[in-house]
What we know:
Blueprint: H1 16-22, H2 29-34, H3 38-52, H4 59-73, H5 76-88, H6 93-99, H7 110-125, H8 130-165
Amino acid sequence: MTDAHIPLPTNEQLTERELKLLKGLPEANVFRMVANTSASLKPFLDFAGSVLLQNKFDRRLRQLAILRVIAILGSEYARVQHERISKVVGVPEQDIVTANTPGSTEGLDEETLLVLEAAEDITRNIKLRSDLLERLLERYGREQTTEFVLAISFYNLIPRFLESARVPLESEALL
C-alpha cells in the first residue's frame, strides 16, 4: 500500500491568476496545495494574512498559542514552519519548547499561561470555557479577543488540512 497524498500542482497546472497570487510569497507547499482549488486560493491567502500579519494581538503570544495548538494536533509541517516564525518574531527558545509540550507551563508568566490555556481549551473542547473567555475579554478587550479566538480557530484548521492532504515539508527553510 502506498502513502496516498494530494499532489502539489505544477506551474503548468496552475492558471496565470494562481501563479500571480503565489508570486512574491514564500515558496511554501501549503500555499501551492491550496492552489489546487482556484476558488479558495485568494480568500485563503487574504485570511491567513489577516490572522498572521494584520491584527493587533501580541505576535509572541499568538505564536506560542499557535505552537500549542500544533503540538496538540500533531502536524510536523506546521510545527517546523511556526517554530521558524516564532524565532523571527523573537520568541525565546525555552518558550518555544514549552509551547510545544501540551500541558507544560514551565517558566511562563500569568498572561502567557492564560493564552496557552485558552488555545488548548479551544483545540480540545471546541467551545472556549466561559471563565477563560471572560479573562481574555478583561485583559484584551473585544477586538483582540476576537482576533485571538479567530487565529486559534484558523490554526485548528491548518494542521488538519496539512496532514490530511499530506503536504510535504519544503527541502529548504523558507525563513
